Amino acid sequence: MKKILCACAFLLATVAVFAVDIGTALDQAAEQFSSTLQTGTTIAIVGIASDTEDMSEYMLDELTLSFVRQRRLTVANRANLDAIKKEMNFQLSGEVSDASIQEIGAMAGAETVVHGRLEQVGDMFFLMVQALDVKTATVEDMYRETVTLDEFAAALLGKTITSKGSILDISTDYTSGERISLGFQNLVFGLGAYRAGYVVDGVILTITHLAGYGCLAVVTALNPETGLGVMTGVPIFLASALYGFIRPIFYHKPSAKIGAFGEPDGLRLAIMPLGDTPVMQVSYRKSF
């Protein structure tokens, strides 16, 4: 039994060593198909299924670009394919019949349909891409490779890579401690809301904070003896603080929405060197 376990461990380690990144694997698939399929063949790249839409879109874009760069096959128009898939209510997830894929290829005027899937087994990922003849439904070629994830690819899949190389799912919910921390950050002009990607809450809190300070400063300056500034400013601050602590209960982490550069939505603060002087850099990103 120990020998079998050792053999399995050795096999997995060997596979991991020879694994390639997703971009390289997609380039290899495009190069292989461009060599085996007849030059000039019109192909419809339906897509590559994965656990997230972001990853599937990324792989579809990269694979399309790889085929175009090879300049040996004719790639069907992406916009036309998207319209056909939308019309058929086609989703490249779960069990997809070859007949449905063939139909999409035929409607796009393609001779061959290219589709595949990225699958996870433990901490390993396997990419499978195949070329299917539109008329006969026969598999013309197939590419299969073990792939590794970098931080960008992991983020697209809603995952994170630990220091030991393990793949973990990114939680979509904040912990109680994180929510409390966001509540305290919201006391500073709604900073917590901005950092969490909830810009509307941030604007509301910023406005109420400014209104509270305005009442304390301006009204008190105009009517120092009446105490009207305190009577109006303090309730605004209390209401704003209460709102800022309650709203994080409903917040979800923005990790599920990753943009083209692998950055999540929200406010980011960083210290950047400018010559010999450190400078605070503030940036905000929102995906739609």
Count of helical stretches: 10
What's the order of the H and E elements?
Answer: HEHEHEHHEEEHEEHHHHEE
User: How many strand units?
Assistant: 10
Rg, Cα atoms, Å: 27 Å
Shape: elongated
Largest sheet: 6 strands, mixed
Q: Trace the largest sheet across and list its strands.
A: 1-6-5-4-2-3
Give an account of the 3D structure:
By secondary structure, the protein is of the alpha/beta class. The chain has helices at 2-17, 22-36, 53-70, 78-87, 98-107, 151-156, 176-185, 191-196, 199-222, 228-246, and strands spanning 20-21, 42-49, 74-75, 112-121, 124-133, 139-148, 159-161, 167-169, 266-274, 277-285. Strands 1-6-5-4-2-3 form a 6-stranded mixed beta sheet, sandwiched between helices. The protein has a two-stranded antiparallel sheet with strand order 7-8. Helix 2 (22-36) packs across helix 3 (53-70) and helix 7 (176-185) packs antiparallel against helix 10 (228-246). Mean pLDDT is 78; it is low at 3-16 and 255-265. Keywords: Signal. Residues 1-19 form the signal peptide.
